[in-house]
Amino acid sequence: MFTLNGSTLQLDTPFTDANGTQYPANWLRLATPEERTAIGIAEIADPEPYDDRYYWGVGNPKDLDQCKTILIAQVKQIAASLLAPTDWKVVRFIESAAPIGTAVTAYREDIRNDSNNNEAAINACTTVDELAALQLTWTENV
After folding, report:
1. What one-character DSSP code corresponds to residue 10?
2. Is residue 91 part of a domain?
3. How high is the mean pLDDT in each 10-residue block of the chain (142 residues)?
4. Is residue 80 located within the same domain as residue 116?
5. What range defines the domain where residue 19 resides?
6. pTM of the predicted model, to two decimals?
């Protein structure tokens, strides 16, 4: 990241220095470090990346309970979307006693178990760092 007179300069964007000299969009990419320094441009390290689902900024975690609530809702939505393609088979069984099939029944049970296990893992987290590091697992599609 580059700064000039306290303002951030974006790559591939034209800019004007304090003397009114205009520079084209590609100048920052083409200029040498010496040329940039000569007009007062400083290069500073980009801030550390962070996962904005769990943090407001580097080292600034969001509320754990809110993060858990959001993640559990996502787990439930994923489970529902994985079950949806076979829901019609369950309805057909209820309405006409047509067999569902053992593979589909096992798959649906696996998805429900995965959802319950993921929710339990989320609830077991005691810090936002633990929650952010959590790897959710899902059964492969039938």
Report:
1. P
2. yes
3. 90 91 94 93 85 91 97 97 95 94 94 97 97 90 48
4. yes
5. 2-43
6. 0.67
